[in-house]
Write a structure and sequence with these properties.
single chain, about 650 residues, alpha/beta, eight-stranded mixed beta sheet, about 10% strand, globular
């Protein structure tokens, strides 16, 4: 039997003035996650505190990796019966209600990630202090796993910050940094890291009530959690959910609204909803996607590889400029080279907009901008840890550039190409150290697309690939190792998908009808809008590389002949205004039944071929690459998984993932 003296995951320290510090340091794990055993030990701690109440309690993390990353997803994945699902919800709900009812002051001291069940525990405390530093993030991202925050988040967050802001957080999974958390009232204060312990002590021992916003806006926020505004807000939320997910692929979002509006945020009062959500194919598949994402993240953690500090990018076009801007955003010193300042200036303008949008704080935005240095002469080459080439897809031009770069680079520097299709074997010709060149293939737009393909060739020793993967992880992207081959993985599977969509246009279908079919299937945008976004000239080049000399679709050839290249020229399959395609109010009629399956099948077939050819290591990684590189409907679990799931769904998360 566990006692206060035999805890494995928590440590309780009492001070002479009556203050108690409770440190969560989950044994055998790099991060803090809430599991059955850690929650059982927390109950033991609360028993001890009931027997001898402290003057106040501060809960903090013993990990450098953050506060609490949420509940242990493995426990969700192992649920087999409705009774187990309800018991899991009840475990956290009852325990955190017990924390909320404590008569002495309680405070959550938050550094780094405070997610899911971790934020629900923090919400059960009277006060929350957050470290005012990059990396602090508070979120309830359960909806992204196909589930809901059942341990008090749906009850306490709307009461604290108002229903509109709370529903936005719960229905999108978006997090709040330290600044936004304080502005919302989610945190009582944001504090410099060096002052956190003293501020926590003073807050708890002061005896003052938690800071709460006052005034008309605060009064209105409190009213949004009560009738009649509650019904109005719920109705609006349901309309927004239906607009984004008209096919109902993601049932957790409407369930969150129902539980908040009709059951006071208590999922235990809606057992049928628990059963349906936890046992759904969507939940199983989104948990699968989460694990695939964690596997890609692990590729970016390469022991013994030193972090890159200086990056040099050659080519200030859309891709090269945005790669450079992203690296500077992530703390690196970046030099950006092109023929003259006139070519670099647009990249700097886009970077400034990115930093203002992402960082909010003008000082941080300025610091990031100062790390991005225009460098027409290439003076940054000898200083760089990583040199990235992002010029046009012309093999001879790239090889000529490498011949000029290689003698000026440090012997231990990494040379990378952002080529989207050219084989490494071709590009390495003439290099003194050919294994030094790897592919680091970003996707457009760089700031939004999480995947980066790390390309290697047969015979490579793996050292350069490991360094490239570590670099990708360092800039918070997902590294997918792929073998050098035309189109690698993502472009190789997208090309036949987009070409099939264009052939359907040649057959008389309207572009909007084609795209509508695929959006209904679950894709983030249709294949023709995607082709317009990528550029029809680039789509043609990719198609030629992979089509074995077949004629391009007539609709593509005609638009190219007219100079209609898509979004960048303002006209392609759609007219583009202010960066968005102009579409009719309703989808064009005429899409035949089964169109979505016809269009997606070439993508599935190409994915299977890439696995069979060894371009990507296994089917799971192929699914991960296609999901995070193309937006393939996550609720399906990926194209390979979807292809093998044409059978009825079974109960429980442990069974085959089917939608």
């Amino acid at each position: 039997m566990t006692t206060i003296d035999t805890l494995s995951h928590w440590r309780l320290d009492r001070e002479a003035d009556g203050l108690a510090w409770l440190t969560f340091d989950r044994a055998g794990s790099a991060v803090n996650a809430l599991s059955a055993d850690t929650l059982a030990e927390l109950a033991v701690v609360l028993d001890a505190l009931d027997a001898q109440p402290p003057a106040g309690l501060i809960i903090r993390s013993g990990k450098t990796t953050g506060f609490i990353v949420g509940a242990d997803v493995n426990e969700f994945a192992s649920l087999d019966t409705p009774e187990q699902a309800r018991a899991l919800v009840a475990r956290g709900w009852n325990l955190f209600n017990r924390v909320a009812a404590l008569r002495y002051p309680t405070l959550a001291l938050i550094e780094g990630h405070c997610l899911g069940g971790g934020l629900e525990l923090a919400l059960a405390c009277r006060c929350r202090l957050v470290a005012d530093q990059p990396g602090t993030s508070l979120a309830l991202p359960e909806v992204m796993l196909g589930i809901f925050p059942g341990w008090g988040g749906m009850l306490r967050l709307p009461r604290l910050i108002g229903a509109p802001a709370a529903l936005d957080m719960m229905l999108t999974g978006r997090g709040a940094d330290a600044r936004r958390a304080a502005a919302l009232g989610l945190a009582d204060a944001r504090v410099p890291p060096r002052l956190l312990l003293a501020a926590a002590r003073q807050t708890v021992l002061s005896g003052k009530a938690p800071r709460r916003a006052r005034g008309p806006s605060a009064w209105f926020r409190r009213c949004t959690d009560h009738w009649p505004l509650k019904a109005v807000i719920a109705s609006r939320a349901r309309k927004q959910i239906a607009a984004k997910d008209p096919q109902g692929h993601y049932p957790a979002a409407p369930a969150i609204v129902d539980i908040w509006e009709k059951h006071g945020g208590n999922a235990l009062q809606a057992p049928a909803l628990i059963d349906r959500i936890i046992a759904s194919g969507t939940a199983r598949n989104l948990l699968r996607v989460f694990r695939l994402q964690e596997r890609l993240k692990a590729n970016g953690k390469q022991p013994g590889v030193p972090p890159a500090r200086r990056v040099h990018v050659v080519g200030a076009g859309v891709m090269g400029g945005d790669i450079a801007a992203w690296c500077a955003l992530k703390g690196m010193t970046v030099t950006l080279q092109d023929q003259d300042m006139a070519r670099i200036a647009p990249a700097l303008k886009r970077a400034a907009a990115l930093y203002a949008r992402r960082l909010k704080d003008p000082r941080l935005a300025r610091a990031a901008f100062d790390r991005l240095i225009p460098d027409p002469a290439g003076d940054g080459v000898p200083l760089a840890d990583v040199v990235i080439e992002a010029i046009s897809e012309q093999p001879e031009a790239k090889r000529a550039l490498y011949r000029a770069l290689e003698p000026r680079m440090r012997a231990d520097a990494l040379l990378a190409t952002n080529t989207s299709s050219l084989p490494l074997e071709t590009l390495r010709a003439g290099l003194a150290r050919p294994a030094q060149l790897v592919g680091i293939h970003f996707f457009n737009p760089v700031a939004k697309m999480p995947l980066v393909e790390v390309v290697h060739a047969d015979g490579d020793d793996g050292a350069a690939q490991a360094r490239a993967c570590a670099f990708v992880g360092q800039i918070d992207k997902l590294a997918l190792p792929v073998k050098s081959a035309p189109g690698f993985l993502v472009n190789a599977v997208l090309a036949p998908y987009m070409l099939e969509a264009m052939r359907s246009v040649d057959e008389g279908l309207a572009p909007q009808a084609v795209d509508a079919a695929m959006v209904a299937f679950g894709m983030p945008m249709g294949p023709l809008e995607l082709a317009d976004t990528v550029g029809l000239d680039i789509a043609r080049a990719a198609g030629e590389e992979l089509a074995g000399g077949a004629e391009p679709p007539r609709c593509l050839a005609d638009r190219l002949a007219r100079g209609e290249l898509g979004k960048k020229t303002g006209q392609g399959f759609y007219a583009w205004r202010d960066g968005k395609p102009v579409k009719n109010g309703a989808a064009s009629p005429g899409a035949p039944p089964g169109l979505a399956r016809r269009l997606i099948q070439p993508l599935i077939d190409a994915t299977r071929e890439r696995v069979e050819q060894g371009i990507v290591a296994d089917a799971d990684l192929a699914d991960a690459g296609v999901i995070f590189g193309t937006g393939f409907a996550p609720f399906t679990g990926g194209p390979m998984h979807y292809q093998g799931s044409d059978r009825p769904a079974t109960a429980g998360l442990a069974g085959p993932a089917v939608q």
